[in-house]
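Subject line: Sequence and fold of a protein, written as structure tokens
Area: Proteins and the way their chains fold up in space.
Start of record: The labelled sequence and token lines come straight after this line.
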Amino acid sequence: MGMPVHAEPTGVPIYAEPTGVPTYAEPTGVPIYAEPTGVPTYAEPTGVPAYAEPTGVPAYAEPTGVPAYAEPTGVPVYAEPTGVPAYAETTGVPAYAEPTGVPAYA
């Protein structure tokens, strides 16, 4: 794998190269987008996957790497491929967001 792609301090979303190398977001909380290869993108400095890939891989919210599950059914929450925030709670609050509260998009 190549070197990770780092966002510039401008806060503009970064996109993965066609190599499928994970992209890392700066502390600005700007959403990062999934690579076309299905490799998880990382938002937190811990390297925990933040967003679900189009392949149906669970999105991870907790720092433990455990899949985030929707309330009452316990079914994994997946990010929509349309860029719509994935919701886990019945309140409509985005399930995956950066520290700034910006919805995470797949």
About this structure: The chain has a mean pLDDT of 46.
